[in-house]
Fold this protein.
Amino acid sequence: MAGITLEEVSKTYGNGFEAVTNLNLDIKDGEFLVMVGPSGCGKSTTLRMIAGLEEITQGVLKIGNRVVNNMQPKDRDVAMVFQNYALYPHMTVQSNMGFALKLQKLGKEEIRRRVEEIAQLLQLTEQLDKKPAQLSGGQRQRVAMGRAIARLPQVFLLDEPLSNLDTKLRVEMRAEISDLQRKVGVTTLYVTHDQAEAMTMADRVAVINRGVLQQVTEPQGLYDQPKNIFVASFIGSPPMNLLEAHIDHDNRKIRLGSQSLDLPTDILIQRPKLSSYSGRTVTVGIRPDDLKETTLLPKNPAKVRIRASIDSIDTLGTERIVYFHLDAKPVHSENALGRDDDTGLSTAMSARLAGRFSASSDVRIGDTIEIAVNTEKLHFFDPFSGLAIR
Amino acid sequence: MKQDHGVEGTASRRPRRLTEFVLVLIALVWMIPGFGLLITSFRSADEYARSGWWTALYRPGELTISNYVEFLSNGNLLGTLGSTLLIAVPATLIPISLATTAGYALAWIPFKGRKAVYLSIVSLLVVPFQLALLPALELFGTIKLSGLPAIWLFHTAFGLPLGVFLMHNFFAGIPKSIIEAARIDGAGEGSIFANLALPNALPGIASLAIFQFTWTWNDLLVALVFAGNRTPITVAIQQRLNDFSTGIEVIGPGVLLGAVAPLLLFFAFQRHFETAMKTGALH
Amino acid sequence: MDQEARHRATTARRWWVLVFLIPTLLILSSLVLYPALRTITDSFLDRFGDQYIGLENYSALASSPRFHTAVLNSFLWATLFPLTVVTIGLVLAVLIEKVRWETAFKLVLFLPVAVSAMSSGIVWRMMLDDSPERGAFNAVATLSASIVSPAGDLAGARPTTGTITLNPDGSIAFPVEVSSAGAVANLGLIGIAEVDLPGNATTANPATRQPKSITGTIWRDAGSSNGQKGKIDKDEIGLSGILVKLISPSGSTVAQTYSVTGGRYAFEGIAPGKYSVLIPSEVTRTRWTGIEWLSPSLITPAAMLAGLWIWAGFSLVMIRAAMTRLDRDVTDAARIDGASEAQILRRITLPLLAPTLSVIGITLAIYGLKVFDLIIGIAPEPVQDDANVIALEMWRSAFTGLGNRGLGSAAAVIMFVMVVPVVALSLRSFRGSETRT
Ligand SMILES: Nc1ncnc2c1ncn2[C@@H]1O[C@H](COP(=O)(O)OP(=O)(O)O)[C@@H](O)[C@H]1O
Ligand SMILES: [Mg+2]
């Protein structure tokens, strides 16, 4: 077993495109780290560099204590699960899972024993003699997993292994894979664009955008204390509401468009840096969970409420997501980072917000209601750098 | 030592150099025959008998355009090129139109016995055209057909099985939903064929055109049997082969001029041909 | 109403089927099916196609050595030829994979497909001309051979008398017995080209016997108007600068020297005993004149070489297209699984390419069985019998000379019989590739 260390790793493709920039990442021995980010942000590139399928342009890559930058894939002792599984179409399930062992010149008996053991673990015993084309999507996925496990590698690399499955199967497999990883205890780097997968499976999550690492921490920390606007809006569903707000000169109140809210009295103790923003404009983030219907919170003081009329409602059975507008400038995370030509501040004067109401709420579209804001949990970001203010 | 073996990209440079060297050598070997012929076609028969074409590389004075002047000013020889064109163009267009329509009907119009008809046409791929030469000659004799039309018909007949096979495969590759949507919109078979199927099958048609044209343009045997006095260039060259070293003055330019048309067609249709290759529909 | 509309649509459709299919079916049945069947029945008729003569045509073919050659060659064209072309295409496809000028390379190799088979034969007939003066191939071959093993100073020299032996390796040996008075060993040679004579050649200078020495003269034992074999006659030329060795009975070299002006040489201070004076083989080694490609025994390989020139590009392009259609992740997966590049090729790429390879192979096998123009182009008249193939034989029987319809038909039928198994194979692999995808 071994950890993986990336030090200032960059990748520039032959066409000059820089897909990964100065990536620093330390995956501990036995850890399950999920790398999450939008499609095209450089996740596969990172995995392929670790696997040895892609040359590292700059920086140092270590597996265990060895620098492996110039090592062939076969010498790195890693196993990889591909998004489309990449099973050997001309081999049976058994041969697929045993291929690496055969290359290691293990005895026939030994190979059979190990393959059968793993088939058992993955409930593939019935399928051992079939070819990949004869399997269902879920079974193929498990064969791909089995092929990786059979090797007993030092490191597991999984590239969006569940994205070709239907929703129900995907949720099932999440649990299966985490269980499996815990059983085998192999250092694992799991790549996905699905934040729900990241949050449910990971020991720690690394958020990456445009080839740049944004934040690495355990799932709850990512949700509670996003480091910047990108992480804030990428993690959580529906995403965090982000809008421009004005803080008054003594940090008592915050103004959202034409309405204003009282800030908690201890706000500066929790977020000392906010003091330098008094009398200035910031980006404020409010999670939908922190917007509640006042009728259910009769004791909620009037000073932390906003008035709005409901535009639309998604009824999900366990909860209702309500949408409404405020006359404040919305902020979009896509523009907030990376490109210095754009500050992320939009010129539109109306922001659409989402609130997570309980299923028993009986608000209707068109109703103008008062909405309670959990001001304890407001997030503040610098409007220019997009970084969290704490 | 491991350091030497990088991953892809850095992959060991020295063997790759060697590979490139070998490949360049092979490419040269492949070009030399054509190049040699090109030079030979600019040398007199005397020179041909005396020394190798490469001597012209250091004695360019040997080179003369007289072979070409002779060839192009000789009505008979020039006529053979014309005959070849007159043979090949219709012998390409006719089978392609027939194969396209037939292939479409077999792929997309449902009717009883469709599969049987398709299979029997494709099974005719087994028949080498040599098997049909004598009776076909006799048949053309009884209906008083000879020369160009006879060659066209014969080439058409033996181009059809492969043509139908290829075009059927191409049409079958068009998503069913497209054609069904058109039917629901009320399009007739004629307009579906012309507006939907044909444009989609263009790579296939182009590939078939390359095959059939190259084949009919370059054919010798069918022409020997059916052409009569419509001598194409291949036959004209063949007649001079027995006296190779004097015939070379005609053979050289003839072979080169004869290769021009298929090459032009190939370059013209290259893009379509590549598409067809990429989709793997040619298998 | 709906039903009526549907009925109308079906009728229209039927009409289209007729329009689309009838011409094709008509042509195929009258110009392929009917003639093919007629040829089969004709093969049992006499040369004019009048009289039934049973299997006589077939037995005539079976007893004709020329036809045996044709069948053997056609068999090679249907097996060895496709195998070679596919193998070379595959090797090139693997080599070209990481090279940047792949497209240009493919184009260069693909272009000969456009050239007619007869032209390709003609081009290669010129390339493979036996004479190194005219055939480029032999010119290069002899040139490189003369660098690797240059011709000797006396290329092709032979002794003139029986006392001197010409060894199988070309060396020339003269056995001598030396007494204390010494011995003389004169080596008379012929078969020496004018160009190999020393520039300042002088007449031969007879050696004199000396004690404890072997002396002698190396000379061209010809050129004197009334000279005698084995005797140094007037006007005969001495060969200077020639390497001679003295060999002991055990075979080891005792001494070596070069002849001087007048052709004289001497080994001095030699103990009495039996020796042999030797002109080594590198001195007499002749210039290599290349491979006789257009000779009876090599004409078929030469024709296949021309065929390879045409088809290697096709094979390469098809295989490369199939390779790029393969899922790159699969080979990457194998790479991670620990496979070396060679193992990936053998265990992953090749099996996945198998359907393509067999389709190309079968296409080429069918081409090989029908090959005709290529032979006409490459084989000079005298070796056409040796390059014979069934298609050529069929044409010769049926259309040349008086023309023998029955015999020609029988040859065509045999050709057909050879094509059938190949196509049957191909249908199986077509079906194979369908179920795979
Ligand atoms: N071989 C390549 N050459 C050039 N650009 C590439 C190559 N492979 C990927 N890219 C680019 O690099 C970026 C990151 O790709 P990738 O790592 O595959 O993203 P993802 O996060 O979706 O896995 C993308 O913009 C992609 O277009
Ligand atoms: Mg990816």
